[in-house]
Amino acid sequence: MIANQESEDEKKVDGDLGGTRKPRRLRTSPELRDLVAETSIDVAHLVMPIFVKEGGNVKEKIDEMPGIFRYSPDRELDKEIEEISSLGIKAVLLFGLPNKKDPLGSEAYNPEAVIQQAIRRIKDTHPEILVISDVCMCEYTAHGHCGILDPAGRVENEKTLPYLGKIALSQANAGADIVAPSAMMDDQVLAIRRALDFSGFANTAIMSYSSKFASGFYGPFRVAAGSAPSFGDRKGYQMDSRNIREALRETEIDVEQGADILMVKPALAYLDVLSAVRQRFQLPLAAYNVSGEYSMIKAASSNGWIDEPRIVDEVLHAIRRAGADIIISYFSKEYSKRIRRE
Predict the structure, then answer these.
(1) Residues contacting 134, CB < 8 A, separation 6+
(2) pTM recorded for the entire structure
(3) Minimal CA–CA distance to 130: which of 80, 77, 81, 76?
(4) 3-class DSSP assignment, residue 102
(5) Using CA atoms, how far apart are residues 201 and 204, in angstroms rounded to an integer?
(6) Which residues form the catalytic set?
(7) Whose CA is closest to 71, among 183, 224, 178, 223?
């Protein structure tokens, strides 16, 4: 009887105190919060996108993306890569802006074109930097679409595939470590893998844009890269933003065809897709924190509406928490500078 009474008294006291489980105990100091943090970002997880413009002595600001510039593949690019390397960032993703465009996007696979020059320049001056090269045609075609058009103005998937293989092979020849097909053509990974393997580039990895959605978040990028379509849109080949099962099907196909790294793009509006892909597939997974996501934060910050460093920290950790191994972000340099200071 006495033992039972003591047990009842203990329950009563425990209830009065609100229970013994108090998660706030582990939030009482920055050191303790860091000790038990479930998600972390190392600079090695970050990739810095870079716009490379044909010409010389070019460092051209992009009004729609404050703090981001277009660089010519000469000393101006050298200085940018030097800073990136000094911050501990180990990889860049290159996008090219040629002076000449045509219906076949021939500058994309010209061995002396702007991206090929940039790849060689980076590997000559900073061989430790991993170079990821975008494989697409929208920046190089006169019409701004990601493939070869038929007489009715529709992108022809099968005719486009050999061109994507030529582009990837040209970039691998220049020294690219990873090629990243973003055109969203069916079987593009298989076509590129065969082109690379047949030509002796079996060790060149493919980062597949396996879940690339037709998104309004790309607006600033299209200005920065000069890649907006001259007519129509890309909804016929980029994915419908309302679908997640389709993203898993697309990803499964790319895995089967030889992709080495998967990607979800954009990141923030598609964290559910990112999480689903992470749970389903074991390959390394990248997420692209795209231009519109970057520019919205910059605009709100410039108006004093948000604390930019705090928001960037939340955004990047959300992407990482959802399952990304790799984060491609225009904030990579700023974030790396800040955590080095801290």
Answers:
(1) 93, 94, 95, 96, 115, 180, 182
(2) 0.90
(3) 81
(4) strand
(5) 5
(6) 212, 265
(7) 224
Phi, psi of 60 (to 5 degrees): -115, 120
Q: What six digits make up the tokens of 25?
A: 């105990």
CB 133 within 8 A of CB 115: yes
State phi, psi for 113 to the nearest 5 degrees. -75, 175
Q: Which residue has the tokens 């045509």?
A: 102
Domain boundaries, the chain: 42-341
Chain-centroid distance of CA 17 in Å reads: 48
pLDDT digits (tens, 9 = 90+) for 271-328: 999 999 999 999 999 999 999 999 999 999 999 999 999 999 999 999 999 999 999 9
**What is the C-alpha separation between 326 and 92, in angstroms, rounded?**
12
Asked if 94 and 119 count as a contact pair (C-beta separation under 8 A), the reply is yes
What fold, for 42-341? TIM Barrel (3.20.20)
CA distances for 11 relative to 3, 21, 329, angstroms: 13, 14, 52
